[in-house]
Amino acid sequence: MGDATISGETNSRGGQTIRPREAEHFGALARDWWDPKGASAMLHRLNPVRLAFLREAIDAHWGGDRRAPKPLAGLSALDIGCGAGLLCEPLARLGAEVTGVDAAPENIAAAAHHAQGSRLDIRYIAGDVATLDLGTFDLVTSMEVIEHVADKPAFLAALANRLAPGGLMILSTPNRTLRSRLLLVGAAEAVGAIPRGTHDWDDFVTPEDLRGLLADAGLTMGEPRGIAFSPAKGLHLSDDLALNYIVTARRA
C-alpha cells in the first residue's frame, strides 16, 4: 500500500510526473489516514518496522550515538509521497527539519492538520517532486511509492536531484514475486486489509531492477532488508525479501 500519490507518468503539458488516478485514489483516503483501524491500518502496522530500519541506517550513515533521541538534529529531511504524514512526524521527532510532498491536496491538508495538533513544525507541499523548487536534503525518503510510478527512471532521477552531497536515501516497496501477487494484491485487497485498487502487481519492482534504476540515477543501493510477516512476529525486518523490502541509496 502506498504512502504516496507521486507518479512518473510524463505529462507533456509542463513535464509533470503525477498520475491523476493515483492522486484521486489516495486522496479519497485522506479523512481516515490517521485511524489505525481505518483504510490505512496496514501502514500503521508497517511504520514501526520501517522506522527501525531507518534509525539503524541513520546511525550507520552519520555515525551518531545510537542512544541519542534526536539523531537527525541539524539535518533536513524530505519525504516524497508523504500521504497524511505518518513518516514525516516521526522524522520531525527525531530532530529533522522536515518537508513532506504529496500529489493529493487532501492528503496535505490532513497532514498539516495533524501536525498542528501534534505541535510539530513540518512543511507540507502539494505537488510534483519533479517540478517543485525544493532544494536539496540530507535525508530523502519515499516509502511504498515507486510501485505507483509509471516512469520509474524519471521519478528516481527527481529524487536523486533532491539528495544533498553526502546524503542518504531510503526507499521501500513491494517485491514482484508470486507470493506478493497472491498475498498483497489478491488476499490483502480481498479481505479489506488494503483498499481495493491500491496495487498493480505489474508495477512492482524487484531488488535487482531497483538496483539498476538507482545506478542509472547515479546512486548506489545498499543491501535490501525484507519486511516479512509471520503470525508470531507480525510485520518484521527479515532476510526474506519475497513480500516487501527496504533499502538505502547513496550517491555513487
From TrEMBL:
One GO biological process term? methylation
GO molecular function annotations of the record: 2-polyprenyl-6-hydroxyphenol methylase activity; 3-demethylubiquinol 3-O-methyltransferase activity
Concerning CDD domains, the annotation shows: AdoMet_MTases (cd02440)
Which keywords annotate this record? Methyltransferase, S-adenosyl-L-methionine, Transferase, Ubiquinone biosynthesis
Family matches, as InterPro entries: SAM-dependent_MTases_sf, UbiG_MeTrfase
Q: Which reaction does it catalyse?
A: a 3-demethylubiquinol + S-adenosyl-L-methionine = a ubiquinol + S-adenosyl-L-homocysteine + H(+); a 3-(all-trans-polyprenyl)benzene-1,2-diol + S-adenosyl-L-methionine = a 2-methoxy-6-(all-trans-polyprenyl)phenol + S-adenosyl-L-homocysteine + H(+)
Q: In which pathway does it act?
A: Cofactor biosynthesis; ubiquinone biosynthesis
Q: Where does S-adenosyl-L-methionine bind?
A: R50, G81, D102, M143
Q: Give the EC number.
A: 2.1.1.222, 2.1.1.64
Explain the purpose of this protein: O-methyltransferase that catalyzes the 2 O-methylation steps in the ubiquinone biosynthetic pathway.
Q: Which family does it belong to?
A: Belongs to the methyltransferase superfamily. UbiG/COQ3 family.
- State the protein's name: Ubiquinone biosynthesis O-methyltransferase
Q: Which organism is it from?
A: Pelagerythrobacter marensis
